[in-house]
Amino acid sequence: MRRHLAELGALSADATVEQAVETAYRLLGHAPSVLLLATLEDGIGVERRPNLPGTVEQRRNWSFALPQMLEDIETANLPAVIARSLSRTDDIESKGGDS
């Protein structure tokens, strides 16, 4: 992901996981999609994915515990940055609407 974002010129090649996550969600926030989702793993900068398609015996998918308590995630900075990146309130306000 970092390499791809760097190739697009949106991120430096030596960016941190947190910078890559923030950049990816900022770009997603500009997408014309009706529905945008974020993952808890991205919100706390976890590089290991909970599911790796095509693996059955090699690893236990969907069974990784998050490395932080929910209470800590609720007060962490990166989830708030992601939420702002995906927020469409700027678009709504610029169009003069509130729906």
SSE map:
Blueprint: H1 2-7, H2 17-29, H3 40-43, H4 70-75, H5 77-86, H6 89-94
Helix pairs in contact: 2-5
Enzyme class: transferase
Family: Belongs to the disproportionating enzyme family.
Protein name: 4-alpha-glucanotransferase
Briefly characterize the structure.
This protein is mostly helical. The chain contains 6 helices and no strands.
List segments where confidence is low: pLDDT < 50 over at least 5 consecutive residues.
none
Number of domains: 1
Total beta-strand segments: 0
Number of alpha- plus pi-helical segments:
6
Q: So what's the overall shape?
A: globular
Percentage of residues in strands: under 5%
Q: Describe the largest sheet.
A: none
Look at the structure and give the mean pLDDT: 83
Rg calc: 16 Å
Cα distance spanning the termini:
33 Å
Structural class, by secondary structure, is mainly alpha
Q: Helix share of residues?
A: 40-55%
Order of helices and strands: HHHHHH
Protein described:
The chain is mainly alpha-helical and 99 residues long. It has one domain (2-94). Helix content is 45%, strand content 0%. The protein contains six helices and no strands. It has helices at 2-7, 17-29, 40-43, 70-75, 77-86, 89-94. α2 (17-29) runs parallel beside α5 (77-86). The protein starts with a helix and ends in a 5-residue tail after the last helix.
